[in-house]
């Protein structure tokens, strides 16, 4: 059994959604004579060279869902689909590009079309291309995109379509199912009003401040259309669910001046929108400040910020869940008085307008990796500020598929790999003899990896790659903890295929296209002195916590220290009992780090203060 010592543990409440569709998208109804289909069970498809080029960063699976053929792309950074040479597509007479997608986690989806021009070759002077971006596609349901080819404004020629490229966020960690990929010259035949209700939110009432939703008890709202709005508002029901309909929506002011909203304990703003025709959607939040009156932007203590979503998906419910931190100029959240929606004159339905205190995990570390404490004599270090390091030829070979940056985290040197599919680290010039070592150690931090692999390669006595005596072994760690430093201390005996260890020439990390920070990469001949959460028999609960936080252990607790995410100590408790109760009611909402020392050993856990 592999041994992984984790210095930090994240305990959060999550709301699970399905990770794959159980039904197929709607069967296309356009006349086959008006379609050039690349992939669909409904039509005869043209020839496609590949649905994943060798320069793609993604994994492809061909699946059948409810009896319908579907393409699944996982760990998606970008994927190229090619129809080159004799298979170039002449879409000159087409007016729309259509694709159906289903995703459980993508927050941005991009579609690029590339035309190789009359010479039919990549890189010629007649190439043209354009990428269209869709923000916040609705998750966990099939979404149909019918995109006018005129929207691909820089695609100057459509007679030699050679590449279709899908990409989006999160980079390297997105999963998307694809179906019904085709061009058509048949008019956009999509509904002009929703026929199904918006997805019902699942957050508990206690974690929500709701302005409008059938799911929750709503706070008072003065008006859903101020007299200075440029919109027409009607109250409607869709599939028995109350909705607000703005038609047309140029801009609408929604006010809570009489009962201003204190959203300081919240982390996100949420809203469902549906429109058949908008091309832009903007959301502005306005805080009137402590004086509670409107002074105007930049005057008095008012603050506001507007977020813009270009090319939102049409004729489908979009679920926007926006971190309040993204409203960067909204310097106060205690006196929210206005919500302003801008729809560019389109018809817009809205539902489920609420704030929530959903936990938002950081995307980059703010504290350095734990400093190793083993003596230099017990260590052979490749990278660490704590030790003298052996020579390393490169931390990213030319055959790697990753982006490397040398960064500092809280003053500590760190390797940052973005879009880490795989990276080769080589010590070919100075191969490592680790026969006296027993453990491989590394600290890793990632906001989005779902898999992490570590491979060690020994070039053998001849010291050459593929010289006949090479050996290697790769270990796979599924679902590693995200958004915290994890210290991995792995017995070299777990690398069972690494039968020789005298000529270590390569270390390879695989991250599934994710962003991964790496520090303290070294071998040691003794295990680390850290103890994981379970081994220490320490319990910390509840998590998330509102007021009282409890700590218990099987032996006397020596001390409890709590830090904020900047590494600053905010509380210290000297204890001598096996149970302690700590009042955190005065703490601001956010993430904290609790360290509990028992029997000279420290257990660490992240806690969420609601």
TrEMBL record:
Alphabetically list the UniProt keywords: Signal
Q: Which residues form the signal peptide?
A: 1-18
Q: Which residues form the Secretion system C-terminal sorting domain?
A: 540-608
Q: What is this protein called?
A: Secretion system C-terminal sorting domain-containing protein
Q: InterPro entries under this entry?
A: Galactose-bd-like_sf, Secre_tail
Under the heading NCBIfam families, the entry gives:
Por_Secre_tail
């Amino acid at each position: 059994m592999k041994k992984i010592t984790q210095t930090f543990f994240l305990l959060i409440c999550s709301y699970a959604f399905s990770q794959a569709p159980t039904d197929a998208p709607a069967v296309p109804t356009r006349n086959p004579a008006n379609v050039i289909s690349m992939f669909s069970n409904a039509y005869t498809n043209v020839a496609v060279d590949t649905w994943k080029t060798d320069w793609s960063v993604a994994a492809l699976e061909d699946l059948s869902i409810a009896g319908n053929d579907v393409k699944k792309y996982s760990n998606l950074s970008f994927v190229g689909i090619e129809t080159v040479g004799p298979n170039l597509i002449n879409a000159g007479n087409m007016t729309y590009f259509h694709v159906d997608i289903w995703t459980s986690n993508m927050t941005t989806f991009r579609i690029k079309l590339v035309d190789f021009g009359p010479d039919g070759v990549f890189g010629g002077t007649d190439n043209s291309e354009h990428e269209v971006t869709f923000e916040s596609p609705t998750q966990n349901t099939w979404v149909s995109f019918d995109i006018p080819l005129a929207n691909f404004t820089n695609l100057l020629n459509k007679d030699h379509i050679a590449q279709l490229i899908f990409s989006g966020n999160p980079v390297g960690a997105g999963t998307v199912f694809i179906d019904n990929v085709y061009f058509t010259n048949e008019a956009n035949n999509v509904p002009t009003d929703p026929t199904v209700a918006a997805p019902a939110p699942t957050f508990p009432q206690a974690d929500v401040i709701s302005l409008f939703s059938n799911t929750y008890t709503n706070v008072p709202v003065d008006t859903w259309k101020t007299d200075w709005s440029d919109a027409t508002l009607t109250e409607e029901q869709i599939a028995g669910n109350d909705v607000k309909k703005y038609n047309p929506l140029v801009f609408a002011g929604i006010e809570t001046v009489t009962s201003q909203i204190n959203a300081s304990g919240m982390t996100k703003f949420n809203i469902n929108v549906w429109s058949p025709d908008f091309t832009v959607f903007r959301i502005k939040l306005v805080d009137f400040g402590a004086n509670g009156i409107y002074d105007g932007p930049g005057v008095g203590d008012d603050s506001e910020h507007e977020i813009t979503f270009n090319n939102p998906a049409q004729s489908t419910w979009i679920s926007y869940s926006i971190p309040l931190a993204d409203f960067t100029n909204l310097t106060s959240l205690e006196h929210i008085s206005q919500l302003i929606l801008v729809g560019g004159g389109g018809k817009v339905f809205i539902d489920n307008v609420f704030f929530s205190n959903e936990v938002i995990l950081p995307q980059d570390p703010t504290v350095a990796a734990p400093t190793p404490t083993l003596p230099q004599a017990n260590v052979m270090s490749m990278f660490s500020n704590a030790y003298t390091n052996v020579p390393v030829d490169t931390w990213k070979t030319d055959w790697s598929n990753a982006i490397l940056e040398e960064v500092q985290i809280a003053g500590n040197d760190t390797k940052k790999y973005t879009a880490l599919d795989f990276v080769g680290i080589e010590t070919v010039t100075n191969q490592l003899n680790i026969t006296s070592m027993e453990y491989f150690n590394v600290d890793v931090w990632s906001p989005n990896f779902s898999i992490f692999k570590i491979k060690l390669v020994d070039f053998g006595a001849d010291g050459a790659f593929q010289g006949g005596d090479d050996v290697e072994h790769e270990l796979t760690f599924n679902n590693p903890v995200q958004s915290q430093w994890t210290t991995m201390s792995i017995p070299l005996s777990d690398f069972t295929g690494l039968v020789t260890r005298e000529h270590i020439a390569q270390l390879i990390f695989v991250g599934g296209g994710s962003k991964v920070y790496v520090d303290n990469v070294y071998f040691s001949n003794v295990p680390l002195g850290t103890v994981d959460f379970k081994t220490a028999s320490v319990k910390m609960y509840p998590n998330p916590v509102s007021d009282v936080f409890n700590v218990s252990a099987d032996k006397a607790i020596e001390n409890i220290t709590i830090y904020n995410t900047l590494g600053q100590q905010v509380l210290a408790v000297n204890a001598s009992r096996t149970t302690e109760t700590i009042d955190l009611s005065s703490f601001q909402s956010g993430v904290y780090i609790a360290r509990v020392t028992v029997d000279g050993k420290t257990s660490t856990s992240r806690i969420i203060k609601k």
